[in-house]
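$ ./design --mode recover --in tokens.txt
reading tokens...
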């Protein structure tokens, strides 16, 4: 049973994109705070535009 668990763990670890190494340029993902801030700014801008249109 230990052998199957080890094989399964190795398979999951090798399939994980976080652990995969690529030869290309890595692009960092935005943090949760940045995504939240962009959403709030989008809502504010959207409301401002809607008020201007009447």
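writing sequence...
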């Amino acid at each position: 049973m230990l052998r199957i668990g080890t094989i399964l763990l190795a398979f999951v670890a090798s399939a994980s994109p976080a652990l995969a190494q690529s030869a290309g340029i890595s692009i960092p993902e935005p943090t949760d705070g940045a995504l939240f801030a962009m959403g709030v700014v989008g809502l504010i801008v959207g409301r401002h535009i809607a008020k201007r249109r009447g």
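exit 0
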